[in-house]
Amino acid sequence: MEQEQDSTSREQHQLEAQMPQASKEPINRNTQLSFLCNHICSFSNQEYSIIDSAERSKSKVKLIGLIIFYSIVMVVEIIGGMKANSLAVLTDAAHLLTDIIGSSISLSAVLVAGRASTPQQSFGYGRVEVLGALLSVQLIWLICGYLIYEAVDRILHKVAKVNGKLMFFIALFGFLVNLFMIYWLGHDHSHHGHSHESHHTCNGEDHDHELDELYISNVEDTHLVSPSPRKIKILNINIQGAYLHVMTDIIQTVGVMISGLIIWFKPEWLVVDLLCTLVFTIVALSTTLPMLKKVLYILMERTPDEIDIALLESGLKSIEGIHDVHDLHVWAITSGKFVLACHIVVGSGVNQNEILVKVKDYCERTFRIHHVTIQIDQNVC
Fold first, then answer.
1. Tell me, what DSSP letter sits at residue 117?
2. pTM score over 0.85
3. What's the per-residue H, E or C state across 154-196?
4. What is the maximal distance between C-alpha atoms in the chain?
5. What DSSP character marks residue 198?
6. Per-domain residue ranges of the chain
7. Which has more pLDDT, 136 or 376?
8. 356 falls in which pLDDT band (50, 70, 90)?
């Protein structure tokens, strides 16, 4: 028993020796992040920045390629759709426009993410993505509204014939390009998660358990801490979203191909083209609703859906030395970029620098909140 107490006492002295002291030096980011090991670990901002930079570079290439492919197909479908007199093909082109706008917004977000903040733009330029998304939704609704009007007008007035053969081959071209885009995204989509799973250690030993004990005073409360970032596959949400969009496009082009075949062999069945237009327009409109919802949530500074605020608060309160948490606010500058501000109440004699380090690292490694502002209130009782 005495040996265990001596060992525990030595570990506490070592930890205190490595911690920055409030009375001797100001809070320093580099000092805070190095108190557990002498080299950079996988949850530190330096490695996160390196990974983030590599992700941005890879995403940029993929997104630029997608925009080029989408643009080629869209131009072909606009010209071909007008020649074939097919609203279904033009609707597919309108849907491709939504994909181009979405990919352009994602690309601008990737490019803007690398820009440093300025005194006038203290949070950076992340909201450019949000504003672009809002404008794109309005444009898509305008185009879809026109296509619905045109489809209804054609149903009522029975317009001229549709060239089913040309309609089919235009859709076939779009289908083949979409298959190539799946190949373009597929390798990265299926293997991307393997690249950052390696375990980094301090002095040859994994210190996840040590970290959990550092953040949570009660061993039974360690379930509040999620796995560290190195155990989470780092997948790029923009590329995943683009992959799903391409899959949706393939389904839509198959529908246009089937409609083209029907009209090719049954020219009098023009209603098939118009029904496809109405269905695909509704599909295109429905794809904007999640985007609009997210845009409104960000602009209203709502707590992001990715953050469990109750779990976050209980986790902060479980950190040793913290008596209470109040005025807790979490919002998003843009999708995936979270900001936190709160007041924490600590007891007298508590090392405030140490508390700041624990809170900041807990927020980063558990909820990926990398911009944390804390005001410490002293508990006089």
1. P
2. no
3. HHHHCCCCCCHHHHHHHHHHHHHHHHHHHHHHHHHHHHHHHCC
4. 96
5. P
6. 2-15+25-39+306-378, 45-197+233-299
7. 376
8. very high
Signed CA dihedral, 265, 271, 274, 278: sign only: negative
Query: What is the tens place of the pLDDT at every residue in 35-62?
Result: 333 332 333 344 444 445 665 677 778 8
Nearest to 171 by CA among 249, 100, 99: 249
Please check the confidence at residue 198 and state whether its pLDDT lies above 50. Answer: no
Query: What span, in angstroms and rounded, lies between the C-alpha atoms of 104 and 171?
Result: 23
Is residue 204 helix, strand or coil? coil
Architecture of domain 2-15+25-39+306-378: 2-Layer Sandwich (3.30)
- Residue linked to tokens 């570079």: 57
Q: Look at 304 and 270; give whichever has higher pLDDT.
A: 304
Architecture of 45-197+233-299 per CATH? Up-down Bundle (1.20)
Per-residue pLDDT, 299: 92
- Joined together, the tokens standing for residue 312 give 């976050």
Condensed to tens digits (0 to 9), the pLDDT of residues 199-234 reads 333 444 444 444 444 443 333 333 333 333 333 333
Determine the Cα angle at 247 with ends 245 and 252, to 5°: 90
CA 152 vs CA 143, 196, 277, 318: distances in Å: 14, 52, 10, 61
As a residue count, the chain comes to: 381
Residue 221: its pLDDT value, please? 38
- CA gyration radius for the chain? 27
**Helical segments of the chain, H only:** 2-18, 29-33, 45-84, 87-113, 127-157, 164-191, 208-215, 237-265, 271-299, 309-317, 352-367
Residue 172, number of CB atoms within 10 A of its CB: 15
Sign of the C-alpha dihedral, residues 28, 32, 38, 43? negative
CB atoms within 10 A of CB 295: 22
Query: How many Cα neighbours within 13 Å face the side chain of 321?
Result: 17
